[in-house]
Design goal:
Rossmann fold; Alpha/beta hydrolase; alpha/beta; 16% strand; AB_hydrolase_fold; 10 helices
Length: 308
C-alpha cells in the first residue's frame, strides 16, 4: 500500500467522551471513496472489526450521527470502520477495488486478523456489503477478509425487483418524492448498464440476490455465515406517505433471502422485524433509517459471531 498517499488526522467533532474519528485517506483525488473513517477502541485493544457503509450518495461521515453502533463497538473493543461507495446502488467493479484496498489497509494498519470482520450497511450500502461478502466467501483467495457476519438495514437487495417497483411508482405518479427517486435511479442505471431485465448477466454480477432464480442465486455463498436483515415494517406509513404497498418494499426480497438461507440449513439467518423504530437524527419519522437497529443487541450479536 506504499504507493498510496496516506493522510491521517483526527476529526474535530468528538463522538464520545473518550472517542474520536480518525480519517485515513488513501486517494486524495477521490473525495467520497478514497478514504475511510476509524473509531479505535481504547488503548488500541482490538478484538474485531465492524465495517459500516452508508446509503446511496452519502459520505462516510453521515453514519455516526444516525446510529450508536460505533459507540457500543468502542465499549466492546471492536474497531469500527466507515466507508462510502458514493452514488452507487450495486457493487460495481470500481468500488469493489476501492473497498478491497481499504480493507487491506485496515488489516495492515491495525494489525487485525482477516477472519475477524463483520460488515453492515444501510440502504444501498447494505446491498453492496452483502454482495461483497458473497464474493469474499466465493473466492476467498481474491479478497483480503473472510467475513464472520453481514447485516443489511432496509436494503434493496434485488435490483430486478426494485426496477419493477420504480416503474410502477413512475406510472402511478402520486408521490413526488418517490417518483423523483425512481426516475433518478432508473436513468442512472440505464445510462451505465442498460435495463436490468435486458442485461441480466451484467447486473447479476453486481446484485446480491434475486427473487427470480433465473437471474442468479448468489445467496448460496451465504449458507455458512451469520446474516441479518433489519426493517421497520410500517406498511401504513408507506401507503400514506409514498402510495406504495408492501409488494415493492425492501423487506419482500430480504424475507425471501432469509427463507432460502434457512432452507439451505443456515440457522444463523435472521429477519429482524420492527415497527415504528425508524427516525432520522433530525427527528424525522422514516422507516428507512439506521435507527431501526438496536445497537446494544446488535453489538452483542457481533461479539457472539466473533467468539466462534
Amino acid at each position: 500500500m506504499k504507493h498510496f498517499s496516506i493522510l491521517l488526522f483526527f476529526l474535530i467533532c468528538k463522538i464520545g467522551s473518550s472517542q474520536s474519528v480518525e480519517k485515513i485517506v488513501l486517494d486524495e483525488e477521490d473525495k467520497t471513496s478514497g478514504y475511510y473513517l476509524a473509531v479505535v477502541p481504547a488503548e488500541n485493544k482490538i478484538e474485531g472489526v465492524l465495517v459500516l457503509l452508508p446509503g446511496f450518495g452519502q459520505q462516510a461521515e453521515t453514519i455516526f450521527p444516525e446510529t450508536k453502533l460505533h459507540k457500543e463497538a468502542f465499549k466492546n473493543n471492536i474497531l469500527t470502520i466507515g466507508f462510502a461507495a458514493g452514488s452507487r446502488l450495486l457493487l460495481e467493479q470500481e468500488i469493489q477495488e476501492k473497498f478491497t484496498k481499504v480493507l487491506q489497509d485496515v488489516i495492515e494498519r491495525f494489525s487485525v486478523d482477516k477472519g475477524r470482520f463483520v460488515i453492515g450497511g444501510f440502504s444501498a450500502g447494505g446491498t453492496i456489503a452483502l454482495r461483497y461478502t458473497e464474493l469474499c466467501l466465493e473466492s476467498p483467495e481474491n479478497y483480503p477478509i473472510v467475513p464472520k457476519g453481514v447485516f443489511v438495514v432496509d436494503s434493496p437487495i434485488d435490483v430486478f425487483r426494485l426496477w419493477e417497483g420504480f416503474e410502477e411508482t413512475i406510472k402511478n405518479d402520486k408521490s413526488e418524492i418517490a417518483v423523483q427517486e425512481a426516475k433518478y435511479i432508473t436513468e442512472l442505471l440505464t445510462g451505465k448498464y442498460g435495463i436490468p431485465a435486458e442485461n441480466v448477466s451484467t447486473y447479476s454480477k453486481m446484485n446480491p440476490f434475486s427473487m427470480n432464480r433465473e437471474y442468479g442465486e448468489n445467496e448460496v455463498y451465504l449458507k455458512n455465515i451469520a446474516v441479518r436483515t433489519y426493517h421497520d415494517v410500517d406498511i401504513s406509513w408507506r401507503l400514506q406517505n409514498r402510495y406504495q404497498s408492501a409488494k415493492n418494499q425492501n423487506f419482500m426480497a430480504t424475507s425471501e433471502l432469509i427463507n432460502r438461507l434457512l432452507i439451505l440449513g443456515n440457522e444463523r439467518a435472521q429477519f429482524i422485524q420492527t415497527l415504528g423504530t425508524g427516525y432520522r437524527s433530525d427527528g424525522q419519522r422514516h422507516p428507512h433509517s439506521w435507527s431501526i437497529v438496536d445497537e446494544v443487541e446488535c453489538i452483542e450479536w457481533v461479539k457472539n459471531i466473533l467468539s466462534k
